[in-house]
Amino acid sequence: MNAKLTLLCGMAAAITVQLPACSFSASTETMLTPPRLTAEQEAIYQALQSAAGSQISLKYPKSGERLSAFTVDDLDGDGADEAIVFYETGRSGTEENPLRLCLLDQRGGKWRAVQEYPAAGAEIERVDIEKLGTNPRKNLILRYSMVDGAEHAATVYHYADGALIQSLSLSYSVLELQDLNSDGTRELFMTTAAKAPAPASAVVYALDEDGTYIQSPQLNLPDSFTDVTRVSYGVLPAEDGSSIPAVYLDGMTGATTAQTTVLNYHDHLLSVVYADAAERMNTARPAGCQTMDIDGDGELEIPGNTIFYGYTNAEEGSPLSLTNWYVCRNGLLIREHSSYYAGQEGYVFVMPKRWEKRVTAVQENEEIVFYEFDTGKRTQNGVPVLLNPLLRLAVVNDPVVADAMQAEGYLLLRQQNGNYYLGAIQATGTRMQIKESELLFAMQVLP
Question: pTM of the prediction?
């Protein structure tokens, strides 16, 4: 950022300091007040209190589409709704989990409590009601976290004969409901973290027509995996021109590093499509770099890191990391794109193809600047000889500064999560100069 823009940043900060502070009279308790109950929920709550007592507090799932303490659905397909309510009791026993769930149904238009069940964890992570495999029954799938937040458990119920029947109880690291084999039905996909001597692993559960779980044989993940942090789904082109479903696992391999393994699920079996090996490309990278569809073509790309073009010595010049993006083809990885991945700032800049091995990037103050470099020269310590600056990228969170930069010729590329993503094309008159349309496409802001 040039001196004039730096001065504008300082003036904006000074003005902000002089503004009066906001005053909030509401307490934290008031701000976190649960939503007002509907008439139906109030009736269910009264029935719950009649059965469990008045010293209860409602508990809410943390994620998913069902975020209410009340899950109301026709669980058995008879045309009448049942209700599941999550709550904590006032019990003080140190060995008893205070988190409970209560099943309620309707008789004569009035709600009544049927049975209370202990929860499998300290907090409700997510509630789903889904069919699994080819069986038509609805399944109540409950995910929990433990007190430390590191361990997770899940229970699967179905409703029959006036009661919840538990069909599965699992401990997991990642649990997903997904159509893994493109047959129009969902399976339960689960991974577990490595716990010596057992490696990290993956397994799939599906229900058959008779209500029996078909469990895939446990697939051990690469020894380097300590845990799976992200699961993505896509398709891979097959040799006959068709496509096959693929599961992409981003796994932790150290405190700050990750790698990717690609799986396929077919005929109730999980198999490895791609995993790092001595004779293959290594996908090891900083843990923040995630597998994603970086170019929006519907196919996922796997990131891999190296030093930026033009540098031959990673110890000299503090080179930035270049992130290459690979697609999986016939068990191999093929590079499709190169980019600058700014994880902390929340964006990826996908470089034009013609910049390959011709353009490098350096950090100048708060900006990333892309330079054409002399491909025929290099300094003695392995640092490229920079030529024309091509592009400046900046991220600011002050609208006054963002407006000032646009007045200086920067383009507003994206505005998201309070950040302003800006770029300034540098005129060079060469074929390396980036077009405005290219820049707008190349700037990918992370969700």
Answer: 0.84
